[in-house]
Specification:
- By secondary structure, the protein is an alpha+beta fold.
- It is built from 5 helices and 11 strands.
- Strands 1, 2, 3, 4, 5, 6, 7, 8, 9, 10 and 11 form an 11-stranded mixed β-sheet that branches.
- It is globular and about 60 Å long.
- The relative contact order is 0.17.
């Protein structure tokens, strides 16, 4: 059993292991695709992982190189300061050339939703249903070392994969694949998404849609899986 370590930093992210039966597992290794809860204060925000899906096929993700602006650089400075580390990047608002960071996000949300609804992820899906506060870690902002940055710049496509119970980020150029070391990503901000539910044709709850945190669901879907109207399923099955 993994121990839980409570950390007070600007951004707290969880390990990339698959579902752990609801036991909170916390490290500083970032991994989009994880399921967990968020906690925020004036000085910090945190994502505490409770699980992650097992993927039977790679899921496309997108990585973009972005120039820092005043807001993102302030977030980065707070993150480094909270870690007790020196801010090594220099940002001058009046200069045209700005330091850069990366944004990583799920790009094939439809396929990821399908994976969440598979039988192999039934236990995780059931756990998500129990609390509307369970969210998907859907994007992260990070800086990294030169060697990892070069790997990211060389790759053409990026995927999230499962390997021995762990989620991994892979880069691909032609037939060549490379695993991006998660520990090399200095994540200073993150985004989360929530779930909209419906009953499938057999009357079982499934995830119909993934939406940004704070966004509502369409009228025919529910944020709370326990509020799904069973009569809608009954009517669909009528000849």
């Amino acid at each position: 059993m993994r121990k839980f370590y409570a950390l007070s930093v600007l951004v707290l992210l969880a390990a990339c292991a698959t579902f752990t039966g609801g036991k909170k597992v916390t490290t500083t290794i970032p991994c989009i695709g994880a399921i967990g809860t968020t906690h925020a204060s004036f000085f910090s925000k945190a994502f505490v992982k409770v699980g992650a899906p097992e993927l039977s096929a790679p899921i496309a993700v997108q990585i973009q190189s972005m120039a820092f602006d005043r807001s993102t650089f302030t977030a980065y400075k707070k993150f480094r300061t909270a870690q007790g580390k020196e801010v090594t990047l220099e940002y001058v608002d009046t200069l045209d050339t700005k330091p850069r960071f990366f944004q990583l996000a799920l790009s094939n949300v439809v396929q990821f939703t399908e994976q969440l609804n598979t039988e192999r992820n039934r236990s995780l899906r059931t756990y998500i249903m129990q609390d509307r506060q369970h969210l998907l870690l859907s994007g992260v902002s990070f800086v990294t070392d030169e060697a990892t940055a070069l790997q990211l710049q060389k790759a053409v496509h990026f995927y999230l994969t499962s390997n021995a119970g762990e989620l991994q980020l892979q880069g691909k150029t032609g037939k060549h694949k490379t695993t991006i070391p998660m520990a090399a990503l200095q994540v200073f901000d993150f985004n989360t998404s929530g779930f909209c539910w419906q009953n499938n044709r057999y009357g079982k709850p499934e995830i119909a849609l993934i939406v940004p945190k704070g966004a509502g669901c369409p009228p025919d879907l529910e944020k709370d899986a326990s509020k799904i109207d069973d009569t809608k399923v009954y009517l669909k099955l009528q000849p």
